[in-house]
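ARCHIVE CARD
CATEGORY: sequence design from structure
SOURCE FIELD: tokenized fold
FIELD CONTENT:
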């Protein structure tokens, strides 16, 4: 059986062929677009962590005595605790400082988060400052201590001061009395005073006094009849013996 292709049929077949070819080209183009034009997904850069806030303080010590050099000032930042209390026994680090002026053990105390120290003895009538900084938000309290070196075991300072609410440039000042660590008898004898009045050895592990912290009763001296004392009236001190100022600087 033969099919005759008329002119009309020829046009119809040609149209179908052209339509089919165009459709194939369109699908091919869509396929190429899907393969080549996929947008690249770029992850956003991570936001850098903010730098930790720094807290800085300047602690200024003024020696108000006539003839009592002060040992290098120890400055400690710690939590809500105290390094000494009236009526309680001295810790070993406090005993070492109060008898010899050596503050290394106090600076390294386990409860201390940050510590700093002056480098020199502070002479009467002079002042010196120590700067201490931290980013530790747990360092909310401050302790500072120094020895009156022409004594057996006298020291001064303050402990457990809350500095957590201090604003930048805010200052706090105290005129401070003298403590007795209660670890060495105040006999003022030769060989027991580490300062220039005697040049003694200072720290002795044996405790031969009341063994609790108290306010110091003062130097007696050879001039007032203490037999064997290497101290004179010049080494007496009035209270307050030191002025201490804390300023937040950052």
């Amino acid at each position: 059986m033969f099919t005759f292709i008329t002119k009309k049929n020829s046009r119809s077949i040609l149209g179908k062929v052209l339509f089919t070819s165009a459709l194939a080209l369109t699908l091919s183009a869509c396929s190429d677009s899907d393969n080549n034009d996929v947008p690249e997904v770029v992850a956003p850069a991570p936001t850098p962590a903010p730098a930790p806030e720094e807290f800085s303080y300047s602690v200024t010590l003024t020696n108000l005595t006539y003839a009592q050099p002060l040992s290098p000032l120890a400055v400690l930042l710690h939590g809500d605790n105290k390094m000494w209390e009236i009526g309680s026994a001295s810790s070993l680090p406090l005993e070492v400082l109060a008898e010899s002026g050596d503050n290394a053990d106090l600076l390294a105390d386990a409860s201390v988060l940050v510590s700093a120290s002056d480098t020199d003895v502070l002479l009467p009538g002079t002042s010196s400052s120590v700067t201490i900084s931290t980013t530790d938000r747990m360092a909310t309290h401050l302790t500072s201590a120094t020895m009156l070196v022409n004594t057996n075991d006298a020291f001064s300072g303050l402990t457990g001061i809350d500095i957590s609410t201090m604003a930048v440039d805010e200052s706090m000042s105290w005129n401070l009395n003298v403590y007795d660590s209660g670890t060495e008898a105040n006999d003022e004898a030769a060989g027991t005073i580490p300062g220039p009045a005697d040049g003694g050895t200072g720290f002795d592990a044996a405790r031969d006094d009341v063994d609790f912290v108290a306010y110091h009763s003062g130097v007696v001296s050879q001039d007032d009849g203490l037999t064997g004392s290497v101290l004179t009236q010049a080494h007496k001190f009035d209270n307050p013996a030191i002025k201490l100022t804390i300023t937040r600087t950052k």
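CARD ANNOTATION: Residues 7-36 form the longest helix (30 residues). Confidence is low (pLDDT under 50) at residues 1-10, 27-33.
SHELF: design records, drawer C
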